[in-house]
C-alpha cells in the first residue's frame, strides 16, 4: 500500500513537474515571443529614427545651402549698393559742382546786368544832356533864323519903299 501510495505520489509529483515544465516552457516561449515582438518594434523605431535623422540631415543641408545662397545674395546686394552708393556719391559731387558753377555764372550775369543797367543810365543821362544841348542849339538857330528873317523882311520893306 505504501508503495502504491508512494508511486501515486511520485506520479502526482511527476505530473506536477510536467505541468510546471510545460508552464515554464510556455512562459519562456511567450516571453521569447514578447521579446521578439519588442525587438521588432525597437528595430522599426530605430529605422524610423534613422530615416528621420537622414531626412533632418537632408533638410539641414538644404537649409544651409539656402542660407549660404541668401548670404551670397546679400553680399552681392551689398556690393551693388556699395557700388551704387559710390556712383551716387560721384553723381552728387558732380551735381553740387555743376550747381556751384551755375550759381557762379548766375552771379557773374547779375554783375554784368547791373553794369549794363548803369551804362544804360549813363547813356540816358548823356542823351538827355545832348538832347537839351540840341534843344538849346535849335532854339538858338531858330532865333537866328527869325532874326535873319526879320532883317530880310525889313530890307524887303525898305526895298519896296524905295521902289514905290
Structure description:
With 164 residues, the protein is mostly helical. The protein is 99% helix and 0% strand. The chain has one helix and no strands. The longest helix has 162 residues, at 2-163. The protein is rod-shaped and about 230 Å long. The N and C termini lie far apart (228 Å). The mean pLDDT is 87.
Biggest sheet architecture: none
Shape: rod-shaped
Assembly form of the protein: single chain
Q: Work out the helicity level.
A: over 70%
**Category by helix and strand content:** mainly alpha
Portion in beta strands: under 5%
Highlighted features:
mainly alpha, single chain, 1 helix, 164 residues
Write a brief caption for the model.
With 164 residues, this protein is mostly helical.
Topology:
Blueprint: H1 2-163
